[in-house]
User: Which sequence fits this backbone?
């Protein structure tokens, strides 16, 4: 079946540090992949997506590349800010058209 | 700006009560979804709907039902609330597979006492 595994948090970084949040998946075929972000007290927001192998999604300085060889979609940012503190979810789209999510990784960025 | 609105931000109900969680979207989206979010478990799909009066079970439908009488409204029903249904409930909608992904509401935190 389909599944998404992402690194457990919490992740604590200093401002301007480099961020990587690992995400790997198991799926039949090549599903679309997503990163969502949830700020405190809010619902989830789409951060970026990739629909096929080798696609790179990017938004707000965040990037993730769809790697079919390693079944991965790791989230990266070169220089994090305090305002990036949030919970990040990796997700894949199943053949039925709905999403399954990883368990989420909480990021805290200290000034 | 597109919106998904959940009627209550916080809700406290008693065990055995019938509970209705309402979700309305203003984007003319065909697809609507209900998830619950629990610490350490992430989001789990309860029910979804791809059209009016249509519904499909998700991964954890037990103890829940849904209603979609109009395109813009998708209701989650807890037939007889139990304490293990205390959770954050998130509604989402989408136009179709992939293009824009989902738009989420802000969530309803339900406590069953």
Assistant:
């Amino acid at each position: 079946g389909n599944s998404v595994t992402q690194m457990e948090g919490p992740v604590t970084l200093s401002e301007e540090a480099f961020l990587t949040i690992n995400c790997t998946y198991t799926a039949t075929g090549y599903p679309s992949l997503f990163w969502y972000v949830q700020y405190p007290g809010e619902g989830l927001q789409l951060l970026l997506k990739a629909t096929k192998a080798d696609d790179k999604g990017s938004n707000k300085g965040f990037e993730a590349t769809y790697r079919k060889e390693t079944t991965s979609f790791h989230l990266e940012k070169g220089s994090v800010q305090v305002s990036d503190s949030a919970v990040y979810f990796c997700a894949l789209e199943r053949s039925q058209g709905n999403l399954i999510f990883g368990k989420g990784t909480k990021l805290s960025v200290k000034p | 700006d597109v919106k998904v609105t959940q009627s209550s931000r916080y809700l406290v109900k008693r065990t055995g009560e019938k509970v209705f969680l309402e979700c309305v979207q203003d984007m003319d989206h065909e697809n609507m979804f209900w998830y619950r979010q629990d610490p350490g478990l992430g989001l789990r799909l309860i029910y979804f709907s791809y059209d009016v009066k249509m519904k499909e079970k998700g991964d954890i439908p037990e103890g829940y039902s849904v209603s979609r009488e109009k395109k813009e409204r998708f209701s989650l029903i807890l037939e007889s609330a139990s304490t293990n249904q205390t959770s954050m409930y998130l509604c989402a909608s989408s136009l179709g597979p992939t293009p824009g992904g989902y738009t989420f509401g802000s969530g309803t935190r339900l406590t069953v006492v």
Remarks:
- The radius of gyration of chain A is 13 Å.
- Chain A touches chain B at residues 32, 34, 36, 41-46, 49, 51, 89, 93, 96-104 (CB under 8 Å).
- Residues 20 and 76 of chain A are 5 Å apart (CA to CA).
- Chain A is about 0% helix and 50% strand.
